[in-house]
Each structure stands twice: as C-alpha cells, then as structure tokens.
C-alpha cells in the first residue's frame, strides 16, 4: 500500500512543525466554546493528521493506479448530460463515502469544520495522483464554501448568542453538496470575454415581481455539468470611455441548472451544449453552457459581481498553485524513479552530474513552492476566520478586542494579497518546466504513453492559463 502523505517528508514537516495551528484552530473552533468541538488544539491537529493519512493512502491506492484508464476513456456526452467512465464514477463514489465533500464546512451544516488549509493539503495529494480528479473534487466543497462565504458577506447567515450558526441563505444547496448529491461551478468566461470581464454580455434581468433570470452563454466552465452555477452576469449599463467601466455593471447569481422530481425525472433550466476536447485534464469536464431565461437568485447587491469574483478567485488561485505543486511532485517522483533505473555508460543516469543537478533543482523548487503555498493559504484563511469571528461575536467584544481583531484582519489581508498572485504565477510556470524536464529525463521513452511523463506535461500546460493567465 502506498501513501502520498507518509512518503513526503517536506509535506509532513508543515503539518508537524511548519504551520502555526494554534491561532487557526482557535478561530475555526470558536476558541473551544462549544461542547461538540475538539477539546483543544492538539486534539484537532491529531484529527487532521488522521484525515491526511487516510487521503494519502486513498489517492495512492485508489486513484493513482487508475489514472491511465481515466485519462484514456474518462467522459462521454450523451443526450445533453456528461457521463463519467466506470473508473471515474467509482473514484467519486469512494470520495463521497469518505465524506470529504463536507470536510471544511461547519458542523451545523453537516460538515467536519476543518480549516480550508486541510483541504489545500489534501489537494496537493489529489493532484499528485491526478489533477483532473482534484479539479472536479474541488467544485464540490469549493462551491459549497463559496455559497457560505457569500451569505456571510451579505449578512444572510444568522448565529445564536453563543456564536453557533443557526441558518444560512444557501443552506439547502450546501447540505446537498456535503452529501455528495450535487456540485457546482463558477461561470465567468464567455466567447471573446475571458480575462476581459468588462466585456461580459450574459444578462441578469428582473421582472415586475422581483424575480431574476439569466440569459447568455458561458464557455470553458470546469465541472459545468453540475447543479449549482455561480454566474457573473450584466445587470447595469455603464456609460463611459474607460475599457474597465463595464466591470461596475456586473452582478453575481446562483443559478440551479436543473431540478429532479421524486421519480428521477430531470427538468433543465441550464443547457450543457458540449464538453471540450482538451490536450490534457481529460477527466475534468470543461463545458459550454447556455442560459435561456433561467431562474436565478441575486447574490449580494447589484453591481458587486467583480468584487464577488475576487472573493472566490483568491482561494481558487491558491488552489491552482497547490494543484501545480502536486503535479510537480508527481513529475519529480517519476523522473527520480526512472533515472535510478536507466543506465548509460556503466551507471544509472541519476549518477551523471547534469541529471543529478536537474533532480536537485526540481526538488528544491518544489520545497520553495510549498513554503510559498502554505504561507499564502494560512494568511488567507486567517483573514477569513478573523472576519467571521467579527461577524459572529462582534457585539460581545470590547472596543480594544475589536480594534485588535481589525488590525489582524488588515495584516493578514496584506500578506495574502502579496503572496497569492506570486504563488499562482510561479507554481503554474514551474509545473510546465518540471513536467517538461521529467519527460526530457525519460528521453525517447518519455515521448511514448507508456510511462505517463507526456500526460503530466499535457496536464501542466493549462496551469499558466486558467484562473488567471500568467
């Protein structure tokens, strides 16, 4: 049995020593004020370690061996629905059985209440096995968490006097995702409007009774065959000569793609037009979707679409950075194993100075990227958790405590904003570089499909493109 957690000493270093768990766990556990939580920081971290060990074993034994099959025959498009292969479906049935979709959601909603940092650590191990599986898995818990954050931000999540979550606006959708019965997507990109969000043309329109509807087309939507679409659409016309003026007219909507009745019959409000045939990421459905007067719920206020996109994008970019690290780790491990076996001129090629130097560089780059990643993820989550504490218990804090917390939020926000784009850029570029170097170390064998080096390079090529191009 393999284990992608136990065999990675540098990753384990962060769990054991490198991450300052105490302030993060105290925020996540509301300073241990509730009986259904952990007894202290050590108990919480021990639980997290058990999860990492479980996931490390699962991805090594259940996902990694099936990657060639998943890459070769992953998805079909049948009667407007995306159909997983048997192998891919079995993987996600097992993920559902492990209850990983609710790992980061509050206990009050049926989750485990783990920090998002735990999700990021798991994401590296998932990505080391297969980035396609990791990407789709991310649009389960990721969208559930986004809906909770949006509700917190707009003030539609309520807490009792002890700071427990009572209800949240999108609670039904979040619970459905936690159960593994649904997932979602973030729908931004349109034809001729990718990075240029000011040019988006999908419309959000309100009728005389106050109901909202979305009409338009979105493309390149990861996991766009899911139920819950968070959609950026235009609701306001903005006059102005500046190319960025159009950003002020965007709003955010939650659009359920379909409803299933008790007999399993599906009524669709959002149409999946096609799934893209891609160079890599073959097990990740990249969809074109159409909205034709689809019923929608406005998130936040009109005109806040760009702000809400950034709220989600920060975590998404950290996620892509960590996804890239997982791929780098896979490429390094493949290259290291092959170089130890391939002999030329009387010795294994890892004993030749140039190859040995390549391998050392790859390992050192990954260690540096991991340090950057967990620094960014830690500070982004500390910002979010501190803001949430202010929402839940702000009225119970003294003026001094409130000011101290506000200063901490400002500090964490500055650090996160500094490191997040650096991580996304550098890790994505290094994923391509290290995957290419892995293939090069394999020589002609790397250009064949037998070893999997060419798949890693195919998968890496999108990293500098999506969630913000380099």
Helix and strand arrangement:
Blueprint: H1 9-18, H2 21-28, H3 41-63, H4 67-72, E1 75-78, E2 81-84, H5 86-97, H6 116-129, H7 131-154, E3 157-159, E4 165-168, H8 171-178, E5 184-187, E6 203-206, E7 212-222, E8 228-234, E9 250-256, E10 258-260, E11 266-268, E12 270-275, E13 286-299, H9 305-341, E14 343-344, E15 347-348, H10 353-393, H11 399-442, H12 453-460
Parallel strand pairs: 5-8
Antiparallel strand pairs: 1-2, 3-4, 6-7, 7-13, 8-9, 9-13, 10-11, 12-13, 14-15
Helix pairs in contact: 2-10, 3-6, 6-7, 6-9, 7-8, 7-9, 9-10, 9-11, 9-12, 10-11, 11-12
Give an overview of the whole structure:
The strands form five sheets. Strands 5, 6, 7, 8, 9, 12 and 13 form a seven-stranded mixed β-sheet that branches. A two-stranded antiparallel ribbon has the order 1-2. It has a two-stranded antiparallel sheet with strand order 3-4. It has twelve helices and 15 strands. The protein has helices spanning 9-18, 21-28, 41-63, 67-72, 86-97, 116-129, 131-154, 171-178, 305-341, 353-393, 399-442, 453-460, and strands spanning 75-78, 81-84, 157-159, 165-168, 184-187, 203-206, 212-222, 228-234, 250-256, 258-260, 266-268, 270-275, 286-299, 343-344, 347-348. With 470 residues, the chain is of the alpha+beta class. It has three domains: 1-182, Acyl-CoA dehydrogenase/oxidase, N-terminal domain (Butyryl-Coa Dehydrogenase, subunit A, domain 1); 184-303, Butyryl-CoA Dehydrogenase, subunit A, domain 2 (Beta Barrel), CATH 2.40.110; 304-470, Up-down Bundle (Butyryl-CoA Dehydrogenase, subunit A, domain 3), CATH 1.20.140.10. The model has no long low-confidence stretch (mean pLDDT 94).
């Amino acid at each position: 049995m393999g284990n992608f957690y136990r065999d990675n000493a540098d990753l384990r270093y962060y769990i054991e020593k490198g991450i300052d768990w105490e302030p993060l766990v105290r925020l996540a556990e509301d300073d241990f004020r509730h009986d259904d939580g952990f007894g202290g920081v050590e108990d919480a971290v021990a639980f997290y370690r058990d999860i990492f060990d479980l996931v490390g074993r699962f991805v090594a034994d259940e996902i990694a061996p099936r990657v060639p099959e998943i890459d070769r025959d992953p998805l079909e498009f049948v009667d407007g629905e995306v159909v997983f292969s048997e192998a891919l479906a079995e993987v996600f049935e097992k993920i559902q059985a492990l209850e990983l979709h609710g790992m980061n959601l509050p206990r009050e909603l049926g989750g485990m209440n783990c920090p998002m940092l735990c999700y990021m650590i798991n994401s590296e191990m998932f990505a080391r096995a297969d980035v396609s599986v990791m990407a789709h898995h991310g649009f389960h818990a990721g969208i559930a968490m986004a809906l909770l954050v949006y509700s917190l931000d707009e003030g539609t999540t309520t807490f009792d006097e002890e700071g427990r979550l009572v209800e949240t606006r999108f609670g039904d959708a979040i619970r459905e995702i936690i159960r593994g019965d649904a997932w979602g997507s973030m729908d931004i990109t349109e034809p001729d409007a990718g990075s240029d969000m000011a040019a988006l043309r999908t419309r959000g329109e309100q009728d005389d009774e106050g109901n909202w509807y979305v009409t338009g087309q979105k493309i390149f939507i990861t996991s766009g065959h899911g139920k819950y679409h968070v959609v950026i659409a235009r609701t306001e016309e903005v006059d102005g000569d500046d190319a960025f003026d159009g950003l002020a007219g965007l709003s955010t909507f939650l659009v359920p793609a379909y409803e299933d009745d008790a007999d399993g019959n599906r009524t669709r409000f959002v149409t999946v037009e096609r799934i893209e045939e891609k160079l890599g990421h073959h097990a990740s459905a990249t969809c074109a979707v159409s909205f034709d007067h689809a019923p929608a719920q406005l998130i936040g206020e009109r005109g806040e679409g760009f702000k809400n996109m950034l709220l989600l994008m920060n975590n998404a970019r950290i996620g892509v950075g960590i996804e890239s690290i997982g791929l780098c780790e896979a490429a390094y491990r493949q290259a290291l194993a092959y170089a130890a076996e391939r002999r030329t001129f009387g010795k294994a090629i890892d004993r030749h100075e140039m190859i040995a130097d390549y391998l050392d560089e790859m390992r050192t780059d990954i260690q540096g990227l991991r340090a950057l990643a967990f620094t960014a993820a830690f500070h982004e989550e500390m910002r979010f958790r501190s803001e949430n504490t202010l929402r839940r218990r702000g009225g119970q804090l003294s003026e001094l405590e409130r000011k101290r917390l506000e200063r901490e939020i400002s500090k964490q926000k500055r650090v996160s904003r500094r490191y997040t784009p650096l991580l996304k850029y550098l890790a994505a570029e290094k994923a391509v570089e290290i995957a290419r170097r892995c293939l090069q170390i394999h020589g002609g064998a790397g250009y064949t499909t037998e070893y999997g080096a060419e798949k890693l390079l195919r998968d890496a090529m999108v990293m500098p493109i999506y969630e913000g191009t380099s």
